[in-house]
Amino acid sequence: METKDFEFLDKFAEKLSEALVGQCTADGMLDGKMLTVDELNEKWRASAPEYMAAAVPQIADYPSAAVAWACYVGMGAAALWDKSWGEYKDTDDWYSLMASPRGFDCLDEYVIECLVGYRLDSAEATKLETVIRNCAHTALTMIRKEGVEPQSAMAFHVFARAVKVFFELGVSLELRHRGYKYVKVAIDGSAPLS
Q: Is the pTM above the cut of 0.85?
C-alpha cells in the first residue's frame, strides 16, 4: 500500500470514531470521548486475525454483525481487564476466548450475560444492543459512502479499520459502565513533584 492509502485509512478511522463517539454520547452511553487502555489495544492486535477470519465470511449475509461483534469483544476485554487482568494478561487471542463458549453467532449474548453481567432480557441489555446496532448501521453507511470497490484489498483494509474502531468503542462503553472516566488534573507549578 502507498502512503496515500494509509492516510485515507487513518482519516476514515478517525471520522468513524468521531461519529460513533458523538452517537453514543447523544445516547448517554459515553461522555464525548473514547476511553483507552494500552494493554487492551495490544490484545486487539493479537486477536484481530482470528476475529477477521470469523467475521469476513459474515459480511455478505450479516454485515452489521460482522462489524458490531468487535464492539462486544472490546466490552468483554474491558470487563476481564477490570475484573481479573492477572488471570488473562498472558492470553493473546481474546476473540477466541469470548467466541469459544457459544460461537461467533452468539458471542454478543455471551459477553453481555457472562462478562458484562446483564440479563439478556433486561432494559440495559436491550438499550446496549440498540446503540451498538445503530452504530453498526452508521459504520456501514460510512463505508459505502467511501466508494471503495467491494471485495478489493482496500475494502478489506477499510473493514479492518472499522472493526478496530468498534473494538475500541466496546472498551470505552464497558469502562464507562464500570465507572471509569478521564478527569482533568491541575498541577500547581510551585509544588515540587516527588
A: yes
